[in-house]
Amino acid sequence: MVRRSLSALGVAVVVSAGAVGCSNDTDEATTVLDVYAAASLKQAFTEIADEYARVHEDVDVRVNFAGSSALVTQIEQGATADVIATADEKTMARLGATAVDPEIFATNTLVIVTGPGNPENIVDLASLTNPELSTVVCAVEVPCGAATAQVEKNTGIDLEPVSEESSVSAVVAKVTSGQADAGIVYVTDARGAGDKVSAVTDPAFAEVVNAYPIAKVKGSPRQQDAQMFVDLVLGETGAAVLRADGFSPAPA
Amino acid sequence: MRRIPLWLYAPAVIGVVFILIGPAAVIVRMPWEEFVASVTSPESLDALRLAMVTALISTCLCLLVGVPMAVVFARTEGVVVRVIRALVLLPLVLPPVVGGLALLYALGRNGIVGQYLDDAGITIAFTTTAVVLAQTFVALPFLVISVEGALRSTDEDYEQIAATLGAGPTRTLWKVTLPLVVPSLLAGTVLAFARALGEFGATITFAGNLPGTTQTAPLKIYLDAINDPTAALPLALVLMVVALVVVVAVHLRPARAVAT
Questions:
Q1: Which terms are listed as keywords in the entry (chain A) (predicted)?
Q2: What confidence score (pLDDT) does residue A250 get?
């Protein structure tokens, strides 16, 4: 629910930004481009959509931010999306041929977040096995949870989380609100939370890299606009925005 | 009652179809070959058991404080009581997720009450207790409103007669006031139980999600549906059947009570 209201906010921001961009136009009908993007892309894609709307005054970009799996399910159930960007390749693969030419545009890794200043002195992943600490992770059903499970498997460290949250933003919220001592989230979420959290890394995280693919959606009547949006994300503008948010570039 | 305008049937039928089409679709699309295996998987059984147990406890809590609330609201005059009454019915109209946030800031580890509990070594966050509290929060007004409404429409003469015959207030409450509202009390109890059983938003916000501890059936349905909505259908049907039994129970009870 929180995520949904946040995404509504994101859409409102994008739409109003688009409206400002189009203020010179008279009542000319505008095209609406529906972009479905993983929750972790919220900041980056809001900015990129703004940029797109600035350049293409006749197009309004609406971004629907939600968990990757939820987005893919929505498209499977017939939601009309033009572009889809997910937080891992496995989720994108569920769309099969419906995802046209998926390309990796960024990568993300996990990190431990703690309260500001790391009050519990967490130094690495193994610190989280301390039974005194309450740790929250993503549920394995969502990409950040799948990545966390992979890290546990690689290291043999068995975390005993107090909660498996349905989205990475819910994990961040549990830590920033002080409910939990630590959480495992993406590097970008840790950066997005600013000084409300401290980040602690572990070498094991570098082994598990989530690659973010973006694709056009088959059957979209706005293939050309969709392609231009994809190009913007894959190009220098996208790279700069994504880098500023903490994403790593796609492997060459 | 017999002579109603015929045109009323059109919107009425649309309304009925609208409500029934969803449950029907769940049955039509149910992967029946997986139904038994899915519902009897240890995870599903855990989630169902947890939902039932917590909903039962929540319902008891609702009765313990809800009935006294209803009696006080129904039998006390004054602006203050009326204002308080309006305020405590808030969970009825609040989105449950807001209720969850409210509980978090009240009873969470850093909450205005929770911080002292934490100092005393009592942690509510991420425990089954948190699930029960979230359910009680959203279900309580259903019981209060149901019982209070019935109390307001009963004749206070009976209570006054009981008093003139020498019954004290407590005896009057048990022997006269409450027996008069038994049908509504049952209806309110069942409604509160149903609301608690289906509670999702406040639970996932306040209690989190951990299989066996805080993952009730609605939470499991939500997580199952993230990747594969079909996988969530079997458990969804079980909850639907339970809800149906509950609704039937509520609607048959008062009717029979009126008839006799």
A1: Metal-binding, Signal
A2: 84
pTM for this model (two decimals): 0.80
Q: Please indicate whether, in this complex, the C-beta atoms of B97 and A67 are within 8 angstroms of each other.
A: no
For B122-158, the pLDDT digits (tens) are: 889 899 999 999 999 999 999 999 999 999 998 888 8
* CA A197 vs CA A31, A40, A181, B214: distances in Å: 40, 16, 10, 25
ipTM (interface pTM): 0.78
Across the interface, whether the CB atoms of A164 and B97 are under 8 A apart is answered no
Question: Largest Cα–Cα distance in chain A?
Answer: 63
Question: What is the end-to-end Cα distance of chain B in Å, rounded?
Answer: 20
**CA nearest to A145 within chain B:** B223
pLDDT tens-digit series, residues B74-88: 988 889 998 998 898
Chain A closest-CA separation from residue B39 CA (Å): 18
- Which 3-state string (H, E, C) describes chain B? CCCCCHHHHHHHHHHHHHHHHHHHHHHHCCCHHHHHHHHCCHHHHHHHHHHHHHHHHHHHHHHHHHHHHHHHHHHCCCHHHHHHHHHHCHHHHCCHHHHHHHHHHHHCCCCCCHHHHHHCCCCCCCCHHHHHHHHHHHHHHHHHHHHHHHHHHCCCHHHHHHHHCCCCHHHHHHHHHHHHCHHHHHHHHHHHHHHHHCCCHHHHHHCCCCCCCCCCHHHHHHHHHHHCHHHHHHHHHHHHHHHHHHHHHHHHHHHHHHHC
Return mean pLDDT, chain B.
90
Residues of A in contact with B214 (CB under 8 A): 163
Interchain CB contact of B218 with A (< 8 Å): no
Q: Hunting for tokens 């609040």 — which residue is that?
A: B94
Determine, for residues B104 and A69 on separate chains, whether the beta-carbon distance falls below 8 Å.
Answer: no
Q: Is A74 on the interface with B (CB under 8 A)?
A: no
